[in-house]
Amino acid sequence: MTHGSLFSGIGGFDLAAEWMGWENKFHCEWNEFGQKVLKYYWPDAELFTDITKSDFTKYANQIDILTGGFPCQPYSTAGKRLGKEDERHLWPEMLRVIREVKPTWIVGENVRGLVSWNGGLVFHEVQTDLENEGYEVQPFLIPAASVNAPHRRDRIWFVAYSNNKGGNNGFRKIQKKNGEIPKRDNNAQFSYANFYNDWINFPTQSPICNRDDALSDRLDSIAFSKWRRESIKAGGNAIVPQVVYQIFKAIELYEKI
């Protein structure tokens, strides 16, 4: 399967896609340190820098899964929660890329605070926008602790599927199993029987002092003194790849049904 990532950071989504054996076709990251990490580990993937100035139409109908942890600062309880008034409210840009690329699957990620900001306005808007583009959408609340990470790190995950390409995959195939299509559940929890539990390469205190970042030293060990602060910030903003790996495995399972 082919994968493209937006707001890629240091490549958490891309690492999970690599674990799946998928091809990383492109990334999009404006931060210079993140760009260096992405170029180092995935030199064959195209790197876009500023999402607001990038055209992705060349990848139309060529990407199976598009991912993106659109900036969380506008909604995080750790910030001012300016929401749409924050210049980092970039969901509209991600939606534009979705329209240009037309991926089969979308996995979006944000902080738990998205659910409560302004009565869930943006939380519902994301789902409505995707549904208007022809996607079936299901949000999940999954903490990093669900894959045995040594910290909680609650995150909202939007998993969306479109069968506009004529396939017969995705959520609707569950109807074959139990005669019922999943409906949107804003309080949904995601759970798994088996998790990716190998934390040997994911120390709780990494060489750059990220501490409980749950990230492989593959992604942060190239840091050096000039980038120390950027390394720590990148670790704090990154997704936990073990979580999205489980989502990717579920998607692959649906594709095989």
List keywords for this structure.
globular; seven-stranded mixed sheet; Rossmann fold; 257 residues; alpha/beta; 9 helices
Describe the structure.
- This protein has 257 residues and is of the alpha/beta class.
- It has a single domain, classed as Rossmann fold, CATH 3.40.50.150.
- Helices cover 32% and strands 16% of the residues.
- The chain is built from nine helices and seven strands, in the order E-H-E-H-E-E-H-E-H-H-E-E-H-H-H-H.
- The protein has helices spanning 12-20, 32-41, 91-101, 113-116, 121-132, 174-178, 217-220, 228-237, 241-256, and strands spanning 2-6, 23-28, 46-48, 65-68, 105-111, 136-143, 154-161.
- It has a seven-stranded mixed sheet, with helices on both faces.
- Strand 2 (23-28), helix 2 and strand 3 form a beta-alpha-beta unit.
- Helix 1 (12-20) crosses helix 9 (241-256).
- The radius of gyration is 17 Å and the shape is globular.
- It starts with a strand and ends with a helix.
- The model is unreliable at 166-170, 174-197 and 203-212 (pLDDT under 50).
* The CATH class: Alpha Beta
Pairing-aware structural class of the strands and helices?
Answer: alpha/beta
List segments where confidence is low: pLDDT < 50 over at least 5 consecutive residues: 166-170, 174-197, 203-212
Give average pLDDT, whole number: 77
- Helix content class: 25-40%
Q: Kindly report the CATH topology.
A: Rossmann fold
Strand content: 15-25%
Determine the N-to-C terminus distance: 16 Å
CATH architecture grouping: 3-Layer(aba) Sandwich
